[in-house]
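In this section we turn from sequence analysis to structure. A common task in structural bioinformatics is to predict how a protein folds when a small molecule is present, because the ligand can shape the pocket around it. The inputs are simple: the amino acid sequence and a SMILES string for the ligand, here flavin-adenine dinucleotide. Study the lines below before reading on.
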Amino acid sequence: MLELRGYYSSEARRMLRFLQLRERRLPAHAQGAANGEGIKNQFFFITNLNSIEREKLFFMSEEINRKVVILGSGPAGLTAAIYAARAELAPLVIEGPQPGGQLTITTDVENYPGFAEGITGPELMNEFRAQAERFGTEFLSVWIDRVDLSQRPFTLYGKASKDSREITTIIKVETLIISTGASAKWLGVKGEEPAPAGLGGNGVSACATCDGFFFRGKPIVVAGGGDTAMEEANYLTRFASKVTVVHRRGELRASRIMQERAFKNEKIEFLWNTEIREILGDAARGVTGIQIYNNQNQKESVLPTEGVFVAIGHQPNTELFKGLLEMDEVGYLKTEGRTMKTNIPGVFACGDAQDDYYRQAITAAGTGCMAAIDAERFLSESE
Ligand SMILES: Cc1cc2nc3c(=O)[nH]c(=O)nc-3n(C[C@H](O)[C@H](O)[C@H](O)COP(=O)(O)OP(=O)(O)OC[C@H]3O[C@@H](n4cnc5c(N)ncnc54)[C@H](O)[C@@H]3O)c2cc1C
C-alpha cells in the first residue's frame, strides 16, 4: 500500500487515504491502473502541490510476499495460474502491459481445441482469466522493471508502466514462473498497426499457422528473406492462390535447404531489392495492396494483394533476465530437458519466452501447465 513519509499535512494524509479507499472499490481488474503512479498523480492534482512541495514528498513502495508469482498473463501464464491455484498455492499473476497476451490483438482463433466454432482472441483469454480467478488467482497490473534472482526469496521490482520512473511495488517470491512471451518484429510501416488504427488482424499478420487459413484462394505477400519467411511462404501456398516474397536484398538469408524448397514451389514468386513502404486498404475491405519501392531503380509502385504476412522474426520478452538466466543468442530462455526449470532453482520459464519453434497458444498453455507442476514439486521438496 502506498503511504506518505516525511513532509505531509493531515489534509494530505486524509486525501491519500480517500484515494486508496476509492481505488479498492473498483473491480479488481481496474485497480492496478490507478495503483502507485495513478494514485500519486491524482493526489498531486487534487492537493494542488507545487513542484517544490512534491519534491519533499516520499512514497513508500507496496511490498507483497508470495509463494508463486507468474510473470505474464498470456496462455502460458494463465494456464500456470489455473494449475497453481488448484494446487492451493495462491498464485499472483502479473499482467503487465498486455493483459491476456498476444491473442488479445487477434480476431478469430480457430485452432484452439474445445471451441468447435472458433472464438475471438480476447474472448478466449477472458475465459482463461475467469478460470484462473475461479480458483483464487490474484492479479496485479504492473510492469516488472528489474529482478533480483541472486537469493530466495527472489525480488521483483514493479512500476505502474514501462515509462514511469518510480518503483511502486516490491514482490518477494519463493518460486517465479516466467511467461513474458515474445513479440513479432514488424516492418514499422503505415497500415501495419493493429486494427482499428491499421490493418493488423484485418489482412496483416505475423503468424501463417494462425491466419493462413483465412486466405484461401487469395494472392498474398510475405515480407522477409530468412528461414522464417521461407517457412511461412511454403506453408501459405497450401491456401493462397499465389505467394509473393518481397525482400529488400538481392539474395535470401535463409538456409540453402529452405531456399531450394521455396524456389521449387511454383506458387511462390520473388520480388528482389524491394521494400514495403505502406500497406494499403481500409477497415471495410481489409488489405488491398502494398506500396513498394525498388531500391535499385528507385521506382515506387503498387502491388495488389489481399494479405501481408510479416516474417522477419520474433523477439522474446526476456531483456529483464539478461545476464541472470541462461538464454540462446536470440534471447529465448533455456529450460532443462523435458522440464520447465531454468538454470536457477525455483525459477521456471514457459510459453513463447522459451519456445522459438512452435509459438502457439496451445503449446504455450501446455508448457504453462508443466511449469506450474514443476514449481509445485519444487516447493514441496524444499519444505
Ligand atoms: C496476431 C496474432 C495472432 C495469433 N493467432 C494465433 C492463433 O490463432 N492460434 C494460436 O495458437 N496462436 C496464435 N498466436 C500465437 C499466440 O498468441 C502465442 O503463441 C501465445 O500468446 C504465447 O503465449 P505466452 O503466454 O507465452 O505469451 P504472450 O501471449 O506473449 O503473453 C506475454 C505476457 O507477458 C507480459 N509481460 C511481458 N513482459 C512483461 C514485464 N516486463 N512485466 C510484466 N509483464 C510482462 C505481457 O503483458 C503478457 O501478458 C497469434 C499471435 C499473434 C501475434
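DSSP finds ten helices and 21 strands in the chain. As an exercise, try to locate the residues that line the flavin-adenine dinucleotide site and compare them with your own expectations.
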